[in-house]
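REQUEST ID: PR-0412
SUBMITTED BY: lab tech R.K.
PRIORITY: routine
TASK: structure prediction, single protein chain
INPUT:
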Amino acid sequence: MTFNLIDGLILILYLAGTALFGLFMGGRQRSTRDYFLSERAVPWWAVCLTIVATETSALTFLSLPGIAFTGSMVFLQLAIGYILGRILVAIFLLPRYFEGETGTAYVVLDRKFTSGLRKGASAVFMVTRLFADGVRLYTTAIPLALLLGGLGLFPATDPLIIYLAAMALLTVLTLIYVFFGGIRAVIWTDVVQWVVYILGAVVSLSILFSLISGTPWEILSSLASEGKLRIIQPFPDGGWSSLLTEPYSLAAGIIGGMVLSMASHGTDQLIVQRILSAGSPAPARKALVLSGVVIFLQFAAFLLVGALLSLYYDQSTYGANDVFSAFILQELPTGVTGLILAGILAAAMSTLSSSISALSSATMLDLVIPLRKTVLSESDTLRLSRRVSVLWAIILLATATLFIQTSTAVVELALSIASYTYGGLLGLFILSLLSMPIRSGAAMTGFFGGIIANGLLILLTPLAWTWYTLTGTVLTIGIAMMLQWLLPETSTRRER
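STATUS: complete
OUTPUT:
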């Protein structure tokens, strides 16, 4: 292990500096809206980078290289779909979020259907985000657990204690600036953290090229000859019969990535909260679409790291989830190890802070405030919002412990969890965009029925996770439209 005092100082300075920077940039919060959305418009480029930082997380840093380490770079097909999905969201859904007073993504549903459907969709978002980001928080503990275990600070036979210590440290430090600084603190720390972990990726690539014998061109040629640099997989390896069971064929990657991006960036409060902070549609649209391009380039860099690691390590030595962590802790020189670990923490804290803020805003704006019979003062509402943030931080930490020592590639695990319910949410939002009247009862039955039916489809068939969102969307819309047609029409007015 190359980690030493200098690396430790870099980590300590980074963690302390991030918390202080977030507190400074967040400023004083005067209202719940300011706490969750920011009364002052955030520049479009900062919104773009916070979107990228939010959806990247430590999964990209640690697990994405593992996909190329054991396979190739065909994961980039999803990133192509991500760009297309963002364009569709920018055209059809994004303008709706700037119509009137919008605090969360689910207000759009309240306008066409019922407040009950808005609350139901918000609750589904909370459950999905809780488990998906629990995976992400656990992932960050992997290199820190290796570090703490190597230093002998905890019993080597009790990995649960090591993981809990690492996750608790990150959660507490992140909560400090979320609690006091609100969404502005989250966004501006995201910008800094994005720079840090991209710097970590660039440094990792540079060092790997220097450690592997041959010129960069020779190294890339070797990877290409082994199929490691393959981006497009036109047909499934098992033939057309396996089109729906292989996740990284061209159709599954691009179509699946497009629909997944439409759901995650059009119906997920985690992203919509950032879109709203831009203040108006034009800068929000620019930030959203360009974030897709940045994600593509970022994914390419981390996949290339994994491809290079396949030339440096034998696949029998490390698994997909821990190969990059082992390289960081064992092979990097003094100072660089601390920098890379800071990049991992940056990716983790950006996603964790965003999740805490988004879950808290949905809880307060979709559930607590609408359900209260008496109106709280602005100061009391702000105080309660901060307490809700603390509660969600604790719940996220507890959920992350469920995924300790999972054998699944965690980047696929997190995306498949989100995809499980994203289809229902996207189908519901598409129904809200239709000009034809849709009864709220039909929409609600379609929403929950689609999620249940999609869950059964996933459990009972070998369907690849890249199709989960599309099948959920089709099932939700299909069930709702069938009920709209079959059941007698009682009224065309909006139900309450």
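NOTES: The chain has one domain: 5-409.
REVIEWED BY: pending
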